[in-house]
Design brief:
A: alpha+beta, Uridine Diphospho-n-acetylenolpyruvylglucosamine Reductase, domain 2, Uridine Diphospho-n-acetylenolpyruvylglucosamine Reductase, domain 3, 4-stranded antiparallel β-sheet, B: alpha+beta, Ubiquitin-like (UB roll), DNA polymerase, domain 1, 2 domains, 5-stranded mixed β-sheet, 6 helices, 5 strands, iron (chain B), metal ion binding (chain B)
Chain lengths: ~325, ~170
């Protein structure tokens, strides 16, 4: 591991100043992803600034009926909160579908959405990767693509040598639920505080796959707000993976349904948690019949680009994600009294 | 780059100077001579390094020692008190819940955490009703212990051992 300086500032403002002043500095919270990256050489900072105890660890009710998750609250604590079970079951289910008990005790609300892709080529410093080393190319194209994207990629098959190519997916389960819940992210950075809609936090690779989110260098998540939901809203998270526990999603679905409205977010299919806006638009106001849901997902997935690769590539995700959405919505509508 | 820290390990305050890169696992094993947490994968994937960190099960390979200055740490070595094995350790013996034993200290620490999490009513991925008190079924234990791999595959005895120990709580 490359040597680094370590700092634990007295408050959030000082932490932001310290990271902002050193171009090669990073924030450390639970460390479940960053410490591994330090060891692998994926992250090679000069300075690590510990913020785990600087932001709030509280989960608090908001005046509008929503809930505020302090950035330092752990994944376990959020998943164990009765208010989350009762009002936002999709979030508790997503958290409990991710990682393990040990990891959830360490991982935080602020850190989880900022974990990085588990693309094996990104994590292997001996292979070219535009996300890890911009401009070196993408080793995933045509390779092991089982966990890679089908949405938000160029329409044609990507060029593995192009500097913008990246077919990685975002690995977080929590983030898929937060996208479906229209959560809001509070940050503090060198330019001051701001609030970012969760669906805008993560970005598609665009011309710079090295950037996972819109956060600026030195910008720190301080809390995530869950907006209130109308009475009677139902929500659920469904995850499909290669083994029953402790595995990343092949595809996952977070769905939030109330009278006439449906919100759907997909995991394991894109560089960011993917809001299925096209499908939502088609389904809005109508009955969530199997036929309607399948038709809406056909429209959503019309632009999907399966990636060829070893073990027949990842085209299996297109029918899989459509079926998983249908099953999730069926579960929510059948629950209706 | 070095830092001075204090760790409270199995009830005893230990002062040491660590390189900032040192994991809690390496600090415990290489600096403090406590070899009960094991280095399996060193990537947070196997659970062999599981300890109780400020009362909760955690992976010592993914924790920087410098970031846990002042922490209260319990290892499998510290679970036994006054020569008496912890109920989880006894249950592992009685159920023959290991073969080579390498993963066992991590399994035991994880099980202690699981039993406490159950007692607090925490649900898991396999809990049908999030708001109901979960029952210590086979499926619940298997899901909650899924972060502790056993290459000998002693799971068939580990799961009942955890259930036994939980019943005694």
């Amino acid at each position: 591991m490359k040597p680094f300086a370590f700092a634990r500032p007295g408050d959030v403002a000082e932490a932001v100043r310290e990271v902002a002043a050193e171009p090669n500095a990073v924030f450390l919270a639970g460390g479940t992803n960053l410490v591994d990256h330090l060891r692998l050489g994926v992250a090679r900072p000069e300075l690590v600034v510990d913020v785990r105890t600087l932001t709030s660890r509280e989960i608090t009710d908001l005046d509008d009926g929503g809930l505020r998750l302090g950035a330092a609250s752990t994944n376990s604590e959020v998943a164990a909160d009765r208010r989350v079970w009762e009002r936002y079951p999709v979030l508790a289910q997503a958290l409990l579908a991710g990682a393990t008990g040990q990891l959830r005790n360490m991982a935080t609300t602020g850190g989880n959405p900022l974990q990085r892709t588990r693309c094996p080529y990104f994590q292997d410093v001996t292979t070219p990767c535009n996300k890890r080393e911009p401009g070196t190319g993408c080793s995933a194209v045509g390779g092991y693509v089982r966990y890679h994207a089908i949405l938000g990629t160029p329409g044609a098959l990507p060029d593995p040598t192009a500097p913008e190519t990246c077919i990685a997916t975002h690995p977080s389960d929590m983030a898929v639920a937060l996208a479906a819940l229209d959560a809001r992210v509070h940050t503090i950075g060198p330019a001051g505080v701001r609030t970012i809609p969760f669906v805008d936090l993560h970005r598609l690779p665009g011309d710079d796959p090295s950037r996972d989110t819109v956060l600026e260098h030195g910008e720190l998540i301080t809390a995530i707000d869950l907006p209130p939901l109308p009475e009677g809203t139902r929500s659920a998270y469904r995850k499909v993976r290669d083994r029953a526990s402790y595995a990343f999603a092949l595809v996952s679905v977070a769905a939030v349904v109330d009278d006439g409205d449906v919100r759907i977010a997909l995991g394991g299919v894109a560089h960011k948690p993917w809001r299925a806006s096209r499908a939502e638009e088609i389904l809005r106001g109508g009955p969530l019949t199997e036929h309607a849901v399948r038709a809406a997902m056909d429209a959503e997935l019309a632009a999907a680009q399966p990636q060829p690769g070893v073990e027949s590539g990842n085209g299996f995700k297109i029918p899989l994600v459509a079926r998983t959405v249908a099953a999730t919505l069926r579960g929510l509508t059948e629950e209706q009294p | 780059m070095d830092a001075d820290i204090t760790l409270r390990v199995d009830g005893e305050a230990r002062r040491l100077t660590v390189d900032t890169r040192t994991s809690l696992l390496d600090a415990l094993r290489e600096r403090l001579g406590n070899t009960s947490p094991k280095k399996g994968c060193d990537h947070g994937q196997c659970g062999a390094c599981t300890i109780l960190l400020d009362g909760q099960r955690a992976l010592s390979c993914l924790a920087l020692a410098v970031a846990h200055d002042g922490a209260e740490i319990t290892t499998a070595d510290g679970l036994a008190r006054d020569g008496e094995l912890h109920p989880v350790q006894r249950a592992f013996l009685e159920r023959d819940a290991f073969q080579c034993g390498y993963c066992t200290p991590g399994q035991v620490c994880s099980a202690v955490g699981v039993i406490e999490e159950f007692a607090q009513g925490w649900p898991s991925h396999v809990t049908e009703d999030l708001t109901a008190d979960p029952e210590m079924t086979h499926d619940e234990v298997a899901e909650r212990m899924s972060g502790n791999l056993c290459r000998c595959a002693a799971y068939v005895n580990i799961t009942p051992a955890v259930q036994d120990a939980a019943a005694q709580r």
